[in-house]
Amino acid sequence: MLNEQTGNGNVKQTFWKSILFKKFSSPLVIVFLLAAALFISVVVYKTGFIGIGAILILIIGLPILYGIVVYPKFGITVLILASFFINYVSEILPEEVPIGTLLDAITYLLILGFFIKHKSEQNWSYFKNPISKIILIWLGYNLFQVINPVASSVLAWVYTVRTVGFIMLMYFVFVYHIRSVSFIKFLLKLWLALDVVAGISAFQQENFGFLPFEQKWLYSDPLRVSLLFIEGHMRKFGIFSDPVTFSYNMIIGSLLCIALIMGNIATRKKIILGCMAAFFLTVMLYSGTRAAYVLLPASLGILAVINFNKKVLAFTIVAGCMLGVLIVMPTSNPLIKRFQTAFKPSDDPSYNVRAENQKRIQPFIQSHPFGGGLGSVGVWGRRFSPNSMLAKFPPDSGYVRVAVEMGFVGLILFCTLFFTVLKNGINFFFRIRDPQLKNYCMAMILVVFAFNIGNFPQQAIVQYPSNILFYLSIAILVACMRLDTEQEEAKQKLINDSTLKPELS
After folding, report:
1. What is the value of pTM for the model shown?
2. What are the Cα distances from residue 111, in Å, to 61, 154, 220, 334?
3. Which residue numbers delimit the O-antigen ligase-related domain (predicted)?
4. Which of 111, 173, 353, 403 is buried most deeply by CB count within 10 Å?
């Protein structure tokens, strides 16, 4: 054994010597390295930190770009990581830095890698299901909006379709590259780990105050402060762009934990998941987002329906009783008080304002079947068509925004998309035989259902990372059914082969 180790060491030394003396001793290589060192020095001297950043992008960025295209699992991981941290990093950088184009670039590279890989395999069977068809129809309708005659600005469509339209293509990328149970498990672990990071950030903001760069970003816009500072309390948002996105992701993280606890896993892991769920729900209260409070009981309701058994029923009854006590109990805690108002919408002034706005916009929706154009409301509406009526309209609800921008035709298609996903997802849940895949399928049903409910009071699937996670959840649903079918076919083939062997002998 000792001789083998020594031998290996000699081989390694010989290898590195050959690299250093044979490769790097070449005059051409030495000239190239000297020229590169001189170039880097001049760039850093002339441009300072900007030059250093540019050089690092070239050295680190190019291999990452190559990895995203050639290794799709790596690319999907980078996309999810970037979608979680994109807004947090933007708080540090100057406003003029177009960091949002980073996610656009990753998306386009993944699509490029998808077509390159698919060219050699030519397998469209992954997408032969109702969910893929309705997503294609919805994507086509979003693209069709570019010729909407009522739209005030084509540029608003261009900027909006990036985060609404082309993100849908990620569904097809996810479905195509999720080919193993182990990769699904990895994605769920990554998802929960990033939620923990987001939760810790909000915990720090609530209990220790904002970091200097967070505080600078927060107070740089008086309008932002006025929206977040409510009843003497600053709403927390963690690493995300706003409290709504943060709270929805915490709720979804807790639902993931609750669903995974019901799987066939070790008790130690169930305890960890239970603690994570409790942590997510606690920090979610820091956001002050009333809409998020309703998502948990609504999602647990569908969990009790599709996975009906004594344990789930007991858990649902206990959770319902605890929720009832929390809603009616007297308290001086401002977070719990705000939580209680979520279940009394008629007493909520902001809810009444939203209801009035929705009533005011109804005549426009009824008279414009294709809407006012994608991007006609919100940030891009105010930027590209500031004098239009829709630019000044606060959509609040995701469904109302779809109805205003894409008409009642678009709203019908959008609702059909949710219905198709949930209907097929529930069918998959009852058809899947593998317990692990069945558990993952149930978790994704809860996630999609929560997005469905959450999209009524707020815009649930517009901001990063929610838009990425929404289509990832749908893709995992489809992948679970496909993987289970492949497993059953493999088992049947083994049975057939084993029965044929005695007959041949």
Report:
1. 0.85
2. 18, 24, 37, 46
3. 277-415
4. 403
